[in-house]
Design brief:
Layout lengths: L1 H11 L24 E8 L3 H4 L5 E10 L5 E9 L5 E11 L6 E6 L3 E10 L5 E5 L6 E5 L6 H12 L1
Helix pairs in contact: 1-3
């Protein structure tokens, strides 16, 4: 699936749009409570954390839960297909960076901080397209390991735009 998303986005962006120089647009509103639960990675743009230095992350999941202090926690689990399917688990915190919930800040190990923007969202919260303001990272996550081809294409078109 990773190669599919890369080639699809390269083809869609072949015209060299000037939009790629601007931060991406986010969705208008996100109900953070509806993000709670487990999400499965359907596709991603390759990145060093998942696809470099002897890693090829597969079967990636992220489970979001509400903490007593109102913030969200996230537990990400992946398996390294390049290392006998060794399991990796990372826990972090999530807080909204915008009132509409479309821009989030993730913190891991109290040191690593990253912006995560919601670029596309199924009205029923079956899938979410997330990315970074730099456009260097992109993830398509869903409640199921695969999406209907029509929904997948819809998410990819949002990513390409």
């Amino acid at each position: 699936m990773i190669k599919d998303i890369v080639s699809t986005l390269r083809n869609a962006l072949a015209g060299g749009s000037t939009a790629s120089r601007q931060p991406p647009e986010t969705v208008a509103q996100v109900d953070l409570d509806r993000l709670l639960g487990t999400w499965l990675e359907v596709a991603r743009l390759p990145n060093l954390e998942a696809d470099g230095f002897g890693r090829r992350s597969v079967n990636v999941s992220a489970t979001y839960a509400k903490r007593p202090d109102g913030r969200l926690s996230v537990q990400t689990v992946s398996y390294n297909a390049s290392a006998s399917m060794r399991r990796t688990e990372v826990k972090g915190l999530v807080r909204p960076a915008s009132a509409d919930g479309s821009k989030l800040v993730l913190t891991f190990f109290k040191l690593i901080r990253g912006d995560l923007w919601i670029l596309g969202l199924d009205p029923e919260y079956r899938w979410v397209l997330t990315g970074t303001p730099s456009r260097r990272r992109l993830w398509l996550i869903a409640r199921t390991p695969r999406l209907d081809p029509v929904e997948y294409d819809r998410a990819i078109m949002i990513a390409a735009a």
